[in-house]
Amino acid sequence: VELELKSIADVGLVGMPNAGKSTLLSAVSRAAPRIAPYPFTTVAPYIGQADFRDLQGFTIADVPGLVEDAHLGRGLGHEFLRHLERTRVLLYVIDVARSEDPFEDLLCLQREVEL
């Protein structure tokens, strides 16, 4: 018998390596993902719970960063794309301070998610 979890989180964080996904997750939840100033610090998905004062909340999934051509096996992110498929909403995280072309980064991430 094989069981598979259908939904892992309400929100899935998508971004390039070192875009700030783990930092965002740690800021809005009690999750404690590993944060470091080098690519691919996140090697497994992290799930956090963002709670509001009215006791409502939502879950957030942080997965390894995607790189261009991840669908061809580059980087770590493509292996974890199936986790993003099991979220309700994707939130694209772009580091506009470090990017040469933030809009192109967004388009690249969207292409990788679609493939």
What's a quick, concise take on this entry?
The chain has helices spanning 21-28, 81-84, 102-114, and strands at residues 9-15, 46-51, 57-62, 87-93.
Report on this model:
The mean pLDDT is 83. Strands 2-3-1-4 form a four-stranded mixed β-sheet. A hairpin with a 5-residue loop joins β2 and β3. It has 115 residues and is of the alpha/beta class. It contains three helices and four strands; from the N terminus they run βαββαβα.
Descriptive key words:
alpha/beta, 4-stranded mixed sheet, 115 residues, 3 helices
Structural topology:
Elements (H helix, E strand, L loop, with lengths): L8 E7 L5 H8 L17 E6 L5 E6 L18 H4 L2 E7 L8 H13 L1
Parallel strand pairs: 1-3, 1-4
Antiparallel strand pairs: 2-3
Binned, the helix content reads: 10-25%
In order across it, which strands form the biggest sheet? 2-3-1-4
Number of helical stretches of at least 4 residues: 3
| C-alpha geometry | globular
User: Structural class, please?
Assistant: alpha/beta
